Structure prediction request, 314 residues.
Amino acid sequence: MQRKTAFKIAFLMLALAVAAICAVMLIDPWNWLNGDVDTAAESTAFPGVEEPSLQPPAEPVSQQPFNVLILGLDHGLDRPEDGNERSDVMIIAHIDEAKGRACLVSIPRDSYVNIPGYRTSKINEAYQVGGPELAVQTVEQLTGMDIRNHIVVDFDEFKWLVDLFGGVQVTLSEPLSDPKLGNIPAGSQVLDGDLALIMARSRDYPTGDLERVRQQQMLLIQILYKGKELAAYPGAAWFLSVAMEPLETDLTQDEVIRLARGFAANPVVDVQGGVAPGRTGSTGGASVYFIDEAKLQELVSSVQSMCLVPEEFR
Prediction:
């Protein structure tokens, strides 16, 4: 694990060094600074990283708003993949490129739903049983939303991404003291990958898992804002390619670069978050979350028609 981490740090330093050289030489990978500059350059050696398109098409990824399912797996940090393939984070990102807006809808991991072809169980079992395809199918059946793409990340990859982006800025009104995971003081601060993971994993809140999904959304929103900020810099195409390398996703490299470019062009990007409504309960001796399907459809309708999360669902 230490050798892997050291390699990633060295890898990141090399990527940032190349980006800095591009800036000094006034090379604009996306032709934003000067359309007359010759941006042709030899491929730089980034072992294992696909060379990005430095001038991707200017058109948006989709002419219509679309949905991406983000799955966070409960392995990594020396926890083996075998037996730890549940998706403890399930967030639908509804993206409207034309308006520069995004909505996040979290589905609590203990939501008791029908998993197609399997059984009625906690929704986080869908990925374990059938991978991202079954997770997508389950979420589509539950919400009625068409999922265009998926992104899968585990503990180690989440930590690495946060550190790659230089940490995330958060403000906590109360300190987080989790005897199992660690402590985060109250106040405004920049969290590194280790602290961000504590915040994302902890259930040490008065409302437990429901508050945890809101904290996860806060972290994701800050990562999106950081990505928007970094996307405007020369060398961003290489940077995003490095960021994508450890992720399991069916988004193409060009699509991610075009998304970042589009959001960077918007002076203000509005990101709102909500949680699938329901109530906690139990079945068969297990604690579960029963989705209020009627209320969920109200939330989905608002998100898909206006990219707006009503206050009652936040």
